[in-house]
Every structure is written in structure tokens, then in C-alpha cells.
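README: folding subset

This subset contains proteins for which both the sequence and a predicted C-alpha cell string are available. Records are stored as plain text. Below is the entry for Small ribosomal subunit biogenesis GTPase RsgA (351 residues), shown exactly as it appears on disk.
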Amino acid sequence: MINELGWNKVLQEEWETLALPEWTIGRVITLSHDLFKVMTNNGEWIGSLPGSYNYDATFDYPAVGDWVAIEQLPGESRGMIRHVMKRRSQFVRHGAGLETKAQVVASNIDFAFLIMSCNDDFNIRRLERYLVSAWDSGAQPVVVLTKSDLIDEQMRLDMELKVNEAAFGVSLIFVSNQTGEGISDLQELVQPNFTAALLGSSGVGKSTLVNSLLNADKMKTNTIRKDDSKGKHTTTHRELIVLPSGGIVVDTPGMRELHLWSRDESDGVSKSFSDIESLFSSCKFNDCRHQTEPGCAVKAALEEGTPSQSRYNSYLKLQKELAYVKKKEAEKAHLLEKKKKQTVYTRRNRN
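--- output ---
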């Protein structure tokens, strides 16, 4: 069973170093309100977290795609999650709300399908944002433009040019669930034991795309609304699905906004904007700020229109956003450490 979900020799070797006799390995296929559906060799189990997790977490909060150690409750198809195995990739965003907190959308994925539709949803600035997170995830990004049957050849060419500027070297696949265009190309990528996450805004056709890959109507979908050219949002939770070919996809709810998350090893911006950062070494001064300095290669390139001013502005905006998140995370860590020291001091005084 788990072999069909991507279990391999590397995972087996790691498992042998940490497994306890009472533990069973499984992969999280969906979650809802701290309850996790875990597929094991003994079927689907409902997993939950130990009562101590909220104040003494010893492993990462499980996400769809994670491999977890689960301890079965006697006589039940339920269990307690005891460990999350090391993730080889994870698509992370800044959690909703004001709190500085990371949210793992999907883990252990090989491909990040960045999905936009060819109608009003097409937005290059949003694609740049998704690309940064995709490169940081460790997965290979693939740009997927759905509903290609709604555009003519000139519109298609314009979109190709814009995507190639923003995502140079990244595969671009036009898809139509009506004509079948591009479906076989995606199936060719998602080979047995490979996992692809479907990521994009609401109404871009992710669930319909899953149905096309499955050759079935597993995922509930609705048609395009006439007032805004978008499909009705139907996916309400993340779910890992095995395709007839043996490949695996993770369907995700539409994201109204994708706020970036910063990590020490993050290089998503550099990979996404390599055309801009490659200019830095050609500037006259090593500490050039690309503003008023003479001999600035960036300013010269902008004057020539390559890159465009809008792309450079997007680069600056994303850099600023990541710096802000990193600063807030550092402040949060400092406060937690201060609180920890205060707790230790209070306990010592009591004793």
C-alpha cells in the first residue's frame, strides 16, 4: 500500500533508524481540524496528536504528503501520531492572519504545478510570487495555464512571452479540460511514485484538472461564472490522490493570497530573478544600490527595457516582504527565548 504512495529505499533506511515496534508508517493524505487521515499498509487510519503537543511539540506539525509514525489504538482504525519523518521538500507560505507563522501547504512533492487560467486570472506578478515559493520548496516548478480553449493564437503567444520572461527555463504547459490539450503532458511528468502539488487561486480549474488526470469525476467542480470568468471554488481541503498511472497529486484549496515565508536557506528570489541579480556583478561599484550610482548595470538594463521596470519593482517588493517576515520571525524567537528564561527563573525562585 505505502509503496504506491512513494515509499522508497531512502525512506526505508531512515525509518529503520528511528522506528519503535509499536509504530506503523503511513502517509498523510488529508487533514481537518487536527485530525489526519493516514494511509498505512493496514488501510486508512485517523490520526491525532498527543495531548502534550501544544506545549511540548517534539516534531513538526503534520502536513498533507508527510510520512508519519503512528501508534495504533487497540482494536481501532485510529492512532496517535508520534513522529514526522524528514521532509525532502515542502511548499510553505506565511499563515493567514497577523501572526508570524509558517503553513506547510504540501510536503514531499517532486513538482509544484503553478496553475493559472487563461482568462482573467492570468497575472504575471502573482506567478513571480508563486515561483519564489516553489523554488524555495525544493520541488521543480511547472507553469500550467488552464482553459486554453478560451483564447486565440495571438493571446497564447502573448502569454508565452510573458511567462518566459518571468519563468525562464521553467516548463510551460497549456491545458484544456474541454479539448484534452496538455493532459498527457502532465501525466508524463507525474510518473509512478512521483508527487505533484496543484497550486493556484480559486476557480482556475485545479479540481477539474484532477478529474481529467483521473479520468473520473472524483472531485466536485462547478462551471465558470459568467460575471467574472472564474470557476466556482469547490475544493475545501488538501487531499493526496493516487492516479491510475501510479503518479500522485495533491489538490489544494484556492489561495486568495500567497504571502511569502522566509528561511535562512531561502534562494527562491535569486532563482526567480536570476536575470536581474546576474547584472549586479557588472555594476561599476561592488556596493551599488542601483539607484543614482554611475555605471550601474541594472539602471542601464532598465533603460533598455530588459528587464521591464514592472518586473524590477516586483523583485524589490518581494525582497522587502521577505526581509520583513525574517525580521518578525527573529523578534518572535527573541520573545520566546526571553519568556523561556523568565519561566526558568521563576521555577528556581519557587524552589
